[in-house]
Amino acid sequence: MTKFRVGIIGATGMVGQRFVTLLSDHPWFEISALAASAGSAGKTYKEAVAGRWAFSWPIPEKAANMTVLDASKVQDVSKECDFVFCAVAMDKLATRALEESYAMAETPVVSNNSACRMLPDVPMLIPEINAGHAPIILAQRKRLGTKRGFIAVKPNCSIQSYVPALTPLRDFGLKEVSVCTYQAISGAGKTFERWPEILDNVVPYIGGEEDKSEQEPLKIWGELNADGTAIEMAQAPVISAQCLRVPVSDGHMAAVSVSFEHRPEEAEILDRWANYRTVAQQLALPSAPTPFLKYFSEPDRPQTRLDRDFERGMGVTLGRLRPDPIFDYKFVCLSHNTLRGAAGGGVLSAELLCAQGYIQRKE
User: Fold this and answer.
1) What is each CA distance from 176 to 130, 238, 240, 340, in whole angstroms?
2) pTM here?
3) Same domain, 138 and 163
4) Which domain holds residue 296?
5) Is residue 174 located within the same domain as residue 243?
6) Are 150 and 202 contained in the same domain?
7) Is residue 363 part of a domain?
8) In angstroms, how far is the first alpha carbon of the chain from the final one?
9) Number of folded domains in the chain?
10) What pLDDT does residue 363 have?
11) How far apart are the C-alpha atoms of 360 and 281, rounded to whole Å?
12) Spatial distance between the Cα atoms of 174 and 244, rounded to a whole number of angstroms
């Protein structure tokens, strides 16, 4: 198989670094371009990330010696790539403009950023949940005036533990959800060395996170409208979220309470979680976890340090299902925020789009 040529926009940041590690030995993709700000352009990648490589393992050798390109020079980067991943640290307007410029240069964009997430013709993908949203790309191409270029995004990392847990239960009629997320510092692009103030501390505010946590699931659970021009948001459940930053390196945990229109038995919930099978597993996508969901019967699991790497960090772990005196049930769940929640989720989305034919090699 001839591999797809892949660029990483924002390659020097923490999520960009995750993309570099995940793609260094990928069976479908090979890194053909690394791009970042003008300040990093012209340096080798190892020079550009010197002193801020976020991981304990070394930079993959091929990437280390690649010359970083200027991400703003869209045509120069695009000619090297079949598609790009984007993980830039820019404001929303600038990010949207950059991503649309790549799409209009006929280079598909799989984005980790939030700028385009709520656009009605941009698919926001968790491949195990809403692979059926991909056809909206046809409407987006019409808007952008492109033949092959488009933008697809992955959702916020905070929702990727509890939305997978709730999805198999939707036909019981999700009515109300209260969720509190306990989010790792890597979600802010930080390490303990760079953020010592977080030690022995909890910060009860993450800018914009609660709005995303309450709204993005409704788009993921939404449906394409009748003429295929927009994704219409789901009308239920009502979600109330609180998001806290905690002194953990990686892994976002969520404590969830949920009420239903038709209250299931505990055994029914456990059966749904145990037997949830999805398109990503059916297509045998390289990054797809098997299984996607795992429930622990032990009362003290899942734990962040023990369980965040389940299925190479791409699976979701669940535990502590029990009745709730206000809602119907409560439980906890855990996902790896920079793997399932960020770069890994982006790679899996790209695999899905390649398998579906929306991303193709340039001639």
Assistant:
1) 21, 5, 8, 25
2) 0.96
3) no
4) 158-335
5) yes
6) no
7) no
8) 15
9) 2
10) 80
11) 21
12) 24
* Residue 157 bears catalytic tag: yes
Q: Give 105's contacts (C-beta < 8 A, 6+ positions apart).
A: 74, 75, 78, 149
- With tokens 């993709």, the residue in question is 29
- For Cα atoms 152, 86, 156, give the angle at the middle one, nearest 5 degrees: 65
Among 252, 333, 336, 354, the one annotated catalytic: 252
Residue 211 has pLDDT above 80, yes or no: yes
CA 298/CA 282 separation, integer angstroms = 30
252 tagged catalytic: yes
Residue 356, token pair as written in the block: 């579906």
Query: Six-digit token pair at 318?
Result: 């669940």
How big, in percent rounded to 5, are the helix, strand and coil portions of the chain? 35, 20, 45
Q: How far apart are CA 185 and CA 190, in angstroms?
A: 5
Domain check: are 27 and 113 in the same one? yes
Contact 317, 333 (CB under 8 A): yes
Q: In degrees to the nearest 10, what's the CA dihedral of 200, 186, 51, 195? A: -30
For 144-196, write each residue's pLDDT tens digit.
Answer: 999 999 999 999 999 999 999 999 999 999 999 999 999 999 999 899 999 99
Which one of 81, 86, 116, 157 is the catalytic residue?
157
pLDDT tens digits, 259-309: 999 999 999 999 999 999 999 999 999 999 999 999 999 999 999 999 999
Alpha-carbon gap, residue 38 to 42, rounded angstroms: 8
Per the CB < 8 A criterion, the answer to whether 206 and 243 are in contact is yes
CA angle 99, 101, 107 (to 5 degrees): 80
Taking alpha carbons only, the member of 361, 269, 271 closest to residue 321 is: 269
Is pLDDT above 90 for 66? yes
Structure tokens at 348: 């899996």
